[in-house]
Amino acid sequence: MTTKKEKISGGVPKNPVMKYLYLNKGILAGALGIFLVFGFLTEFKFWGRANVINILRITSLDSIAAFGVTLIIITGGIDLSVGALMACASTYCALLISNGLHPAGALLVGVLIATVFGAINGGIVANTKIPPFIVTLGTMNIGRGIAYTCSAGTPIRISGDFGEIGNGYLMNTIPYPIIYTAVILAITYVLLNKTKFGREVYAIGGNAEAARFSGINSKKVIWIVYTFAGFLYGIYGVISCSRLYSGQPTLGQGSELTAIAAAVVGGTSMSGGVGRIGATFIGALIMDLLSSGLNFMNVPFYWQYVCQGVVVLGAVFVDLQIKKK
User: Would the keyword S-adenosyl-L-methionine turn up in this protein's UniProt record (predicted)?
Assistant: First the structure.
């Protein structure tokens, strides 16, 4: 039983773990329900250790991109260049390694390329009246074209110890991508919830005009948000390059929709001003549980798109109903 000292206003527990569970109990229940249903439908095979580890590994990567998208949506924006920037980071990283550059240097260049693209997105969105949808649609095509150009349209194969970054395990138990995601989640959470910058992000998404009149440098905040998102896409790209031992120009096709879906299912409002990083992780987990479960049951991939679309529409509908109340 939670004591009075363990609570803050509204009955929310003070303990960080209990607070997280309390605030996200709805979507956590949804994730648990999906996990249980697919377990029974597959005669408990879905609950196997190897499958659970694989789902967590995939969710970890998807979450990294979804964190960046969540911040952008909170400001009232949108980003369609997610997958293309991943592909740019992946192909350039593989290209540089195949040409003899040290893997550490190639990794940094790959992340830097995606970060620069993110900064370009942020600069245009912040300093012009061009809608974020159009800006990121343009950079999506540019980024994808660059990825195809530098790879000649084919995967760039690599070998060596670089694969350990994406395929290794901590103490032969926890995949490294899960560790990376935990660190990024903690950093992003602190940035969004414990700093002045985070308060400004929410303020801009809640009411951009009021934020401007209150002295917030909206242009700077938006530029930083898009740049940070590009940085996260770059991390996703180089980790994927390591996992696949290749740079894939087709990497991330459709990832922008997966990232947006994870954010929306996690409770991020498409109208801006509302969203939680911890909930986005659960949203990504729900989407990956659905995908993995349907794969387990040999459901054609096109029906998986239908299911994901229904989930996203349902999440948006619920968000609208909550706003009405």
Answer: no
